[in-house]
Fold this sequence. Notes:
Layout: H1 4-11, E1 22-26, H2 46-54, E2 59-66, E3 72-74, H3 95-98, E4 119-120, H4 121-129, E5 136-141, H5 152-168, E6 176-180, H6 183-192, E7 197-202, H7 207-213, E8 222-226, H8 232-240, E9 244-248, H9 253-262, E10 266-269, H10 272-286
Parallel strand pairs: 1-2, 1-10, 2-5, 5-6, 6-7, 7-8, 8-9, 9-10
Antiparallel strand pairs: 2-3, 3-4
Helix pairs in contact: 5-6, 9-10
Amino acid sequence: MPARSQVRAAWQPPAGAHAGPLAIGHAGSGFLTWLRPFNPLPPSSRHSIRRALERGADGVEVDVRLSQDSVAVLYHDPQLESMSTGKGCVSQAPARVLEQLRYRVRWPFRWFGPRQHLSRLDSLLAELNRRPVYPYLHLDLHEDDPCASNSPARDKALARQLQQLVHRYRVPPGRLTIISSRPAMLRHLAQLLPAVGLGLEVEPEHYPAALARLDSLPWVGAVVLRKDGFTPERLAQLHAQDRQVVVFGGRSAKAVGRVVSVGADAYEVDNLRQLQRTLRRRSSRAR
C-alpha cells in the first residue's frame, strides 16, 4: 500500500506546472439548466467535456459506471431513462447497446446542441491522449445501483478495468484523480494503481465519521466535499491531515464566490466562466 505522502504527491500538479487552485469542469460543462449559464449539453457527454476544455478549464470531472459486460462508460445516473433513450439500469446493458443510446434532451435544449450518444471511458482517454497538454482528469465512480448487488466483485471488476485503461492509454498519473465514496474501492485502486491520486467523496452528514477514519486510509490523498459541506474549519482539519480538498457544485456568482473565499485546492463547478472570473479577481487582489 502506498504511503500517504506518495499518494498526495501523485495528486498534486507537478512543481511549477500550475499556480493556484485547479478549475475543473463538473461533468464537463455541467448539467442542463435553465439558469445561468444556459447549457444545452448533457453532463459527462463528449461535447460537454470538449466545451469545458475549450473554455480554458484546467481539467474535467466525469461520471463513470460499469456496464453489464464490465466496460467503464460515462453516465451520471444509475437508471438510463432519467437522461437517455434507454430503459433500466446501466449495469443491465452491455456497452455496445449503451453506445447506441442518445441522451434525452428536452425542449428547448435540443435546438441548441448536437444530438449525442453515451460513450465509453476508453474513447475519452484516446481523445485526451491526442491533446498537446493532457488535462487534469477526475473520474467520479458511481457505484450506487438499484439493479445490481453492491458486491465486492463488481468493485474489483471496475478497479481492474480502470487499471487496464490507465496503462493502455498512458494516462499521466499526476493528472489523474479517481474519486469514490467507498473506502474498499479506493483500497483496490491503491493496490492496482499506486501512482494515481485517489479521492474520498464525503457527504456533509457523514463528515465527522469520515474525518475520524482518515488515519486508517493512508491511500486517500484528497477529500471531495459538496459546496454546502465545505467550511474553513473542515479545510483546516483536512490540510492538517495532509489531504488535498476538492469542492464541487456552484453556478451563481454568490455560490462560486463563497467556495473560492474558503480556499480549496480544486473546484469542480458547472459555471466554469464564473469560477474563472472569481479566481482572476482573487489573484489580482492578492498581488
